[in-house]
Structure prediction request, 414 residues.
Amino acid sequence: MIYKFLFFISSFFILFGLVTGNVNIPSQIATIIKSPDYLITDYVEIAGVGGAFFNSGLLMLLFTILLKLLKVNPTGVSIAAVMTIGGFALFGKNLFNVWPIVAGVFLYTLVVGENLKTYLYVAFFGTALAPITTHLVFGNDFSILGIVIVLLIGFFLPPLASFALTLHKGYNLYNVGFTAGFLGMFIGALLRAYDLHPEPRLIWHEKNQFLLAVFMFLFFSIVLIFGFRLNGWKLSGYKNILKYSGKLLTDFVLLENEAITFINVGILGLVGTIYVLGVGSKLNGPTIGGIMTLAGFGALGKHPKNVLPVVVGVLIGALTNSQPFNSPAMVLAVLFGTTLAPIAGEFGFLWGVVAGYLHSALVINVGSLHFGMNLYNNGFSGGFVAMFLLPIIEAFRNIKNKFLERLKRSGEEW
Prediction:
């Protein structure tokens, strides 16, 4: 059933791209492949709605076929990975720049003698560093050396991702984004040292709002209805999903079932779309990418209960800091900042708010470390927030427990 779902969403995006792009698709795809695509580069703006959505749908289709060829039994992590790729294929990933990263991860897998499936999802999420491919390969015409360097970057992702997980203990859902941020930070430093780093950019599409809104509401409504149909047209069982903290790896397909998972994906997608439009922002490549990632991780840890506190925290930051609350940075921080949902799920509403608030400040600063070449910048920021908060939360819990113990002793003495 999950394969049918993944093939459906891929086809839905491809069809939308073909209908809106028509005969211009080849030239639009060529524009996407050749253009610098570090943060924030909206493919909808530089190539058009058709080219951007065709690129997104085709990438989702190719990665789904890869799962099929490797005979993977798909679960929630498959949905999260493919939908995240599709979301970022609207602003950073394309039909060329993802494959050297994937090849590098597979090369590592072969060298250490593991099955290709072992680090498959590291390869999928590792495409966060795809803009480095474009920068190094097309920065000075076509560079073979650039491809070799990107292969090496992919090669080092698996061991670094395993280590990064121990740092935040699974409380940052975008673990590979955190890993990619570290790699991107060192690559950015080296490029800066030789004056080869890219300059900051913000390409942000603001047109076609009715068309994109209809597409998003239709898409996630179909997903939601599909889930309801599988669940016998009932919401029963959905509350079970709310009891999980969301900490990696909380795979809702394995822990509950496909029907409940699809319902959760649909709900989060619709809520994300309503939020973007409700605050007066725009539906475009980056925001739709954020909504797709939010919804995709509705199969791998996120649900309304653990997402809400983080969103509240980011909003408090957005309303009180120097950034307009509906600015691109803050809107994306709300959508992607839900990477910290497990903190709220495990430690409660208040700590989720604190995590979101800290994230709203940190995320606008860490991007300069990798010059926007790590597309999962919120995952990079989220990792630091989790590392910072976890020992503090533990300290507060210890203080609380000792205080209660003393209070209990005092009561017994009286």
Observations:
- The radius of gyration is 21 Å.
- Residues 377-413 form the longest helix (37 residues).
- The chain is about 70% helix and 0% strand.
